[in-house]
Amino acid sequence: MKRKIFKIMMPGIAMILVAALEIPLRSFAQENRVKHTRYKLIELGTFGGPNSYINPVGNGGPYMNHEGMIVGSATTSITIPPDQNGFPCPFPPNEVFHSMKWGDGGVSDLDSLGDASNCSNALAINDDGLAVGTSENGKLDPATGVQQLRAVFWKDGKIENLGTLGGNHSFATSINNRGQIVGFALNKVPDPFSLFDFRIGGSGNGTQTRAFLWEKGRMQDLHTLGGPDAWATFVNERGEIAGYSYTNSTPNPTGFPTQDPFLWTKEAGMTDLGSLGGTVGFPGGLNNRGQVIGQSNLAGDQIADPFLWDGQKMIDMFTAGIGGNFQVANAINDAGEVVGGAAFPNRLSDAALWRNGVITDLGTLPGDCFSQAFALNSRGQVVGGSVSCDGNTIRAFLWEHGEIVDLNILIAPNSGFLLVETNAINDRGEIAGNALPPGCTPADFSTCSQAYVLIPCDGQHSDEKGCGDKGEASTAAIQNNPAPANQRPTSAMEAGMTAREIEARMRARFARLFRLSPQK
Hints:
Oligomer: single chain
Strand order of the largest sheet: 2-33-32-31
Radius of gyration: 23 Å
Shape: globular
Helix content: under 10%
C-alpha cells in the first residue's frame, strides 16, 4: 500500500479573509467562550535534593489512583554511591532517589530496602493506597557490579520485598484494585540476551528475565511466547496482563531475538499479539476491556508504527485512521479512545485523539508548532505538552470541551512554576506531572524539575485553599482551531519533512519522556 504523506498547505487568501472578518469573528468569540476550571497547584518538592518526578507514560501504573494519590520518586541529600543501579537511580543528578507518595495530607518518603543510601522508585498505586515499584537492597550483582533490585510494595508506610525467581533483580510495574502485582524478575538460567541484564544493563553474562504475577503472597512465572524472556508491564481490573516476550532464542540484525507484545489471561495464558511486519514490539497501555496499544516495527525494523489490539487483531494506527496518520499512542481509556500524536493534512505533528478509527487534531497552544497528548480520563479530558517552534519550550496543556488550553494560565500566577509534563489525569480531573521551579531552565530539566499535582477548584473537592482566583477561566472558543499553516514558521526543512521524519523529531522534542523498558 502506498503511504499518503501530508505536506504543509499554504492558503492563498486566508489572511485577507481573516482581516475582512476581524470584527465579526471577535464578536463571536466573546459570545462563545469555553469555561475552564482553575486549579490549585501542589508542589511536591524533594527529600532534600534538587528534583523529583512522576514517571514517564507507558511504563506501568497507574501513577495516580481514583482518590488522587500520587507516586513517583524524589532526590535526597545523600550522594549516590559508586555501585548504584542506574535503573531507579538515574544520573544526573548525583543524589539518591527515594520513592515518594502524595496523599493523606502530604508527601511521604516511602524509603528503601536496606539503608537510606539505596535508591527506590514507586511506579503504581491502587485505590487502597498500596504502592509498588523497586528498591536497591544493598547487595551487589556479581555479573554487573551494581546494586541488586527487588520488586517491592509499600503498605501503611512499610516496605515489603517480593523477591525474585532465583536471580538478582526484580521490578514491580503495575497493580490493580484486587492487589494483583505484575512486573519482571530474573531467574538463574544463563541468557546472553536477557531483557534486563543485556538490554538494560549491557551485560551478556546475565540470566533470563521473566514476567511475573504476584498475588496472595506468591510470585508466579507467566512463562514466555517461546523465547527465554518476558516482561509484564500492565495489569487491568480483570487480571489481564500486557507485556512483551521473545518468541525464540535466535538474534536478528537488531542484535536480539524477535520481541512481540502479549496479552495474558488466567484462562488462555500468554497470547502473542503479533507484529506489523518487524521483529520488535511492545505495549504502551491496557484498558479494562483487554484492548492494548503500543508500538511495532514494520518489515526491515527501520520504522515503527503505533498499534491498537482490539481483542482480535492488531491495527496499524498510522495507516488505518481517518483524518490523519497516528504517529505515537500514549494512553487508552475504557471507551477505547486513544491519545498521542498524529500528522494531519496541514499539520506536521499535533496531539491527537483516536475514536473508532477517526483521528481528531487537538491542535497546539498559540504560537507553538508541535504537540503531543499523554493521558486522558473517561470524561474526555486530555492532557499533554505543546512545543515551541524552536523546540526549546514545552508547556502543559488540557484539552476539554473541544478546546486546548495552557494549564499554566489556570493556576495562581505567582507560583513561579512552569508546568511542562502532564503524565496522569484521573476521573476527578486531578492532574499530575513535572514542572520547572523558579531558577530551573528547560536545559536543566532532568536535574532540577519537580513533580506537581493540580486539584480542580470546582467545589467538589473538600479543600480549595490555595486556588488563587477561584472559579472559572474563559477563553475564546475560536482559539480551539489548530493554527493555520500561515501562522507557523515554515522553513524548507519543515516543508519537506514527511510524517515519519516528524515523528522522529517529536520523539526528540519529548526525549525526557523516556520509557524504563527496552524498546529497540
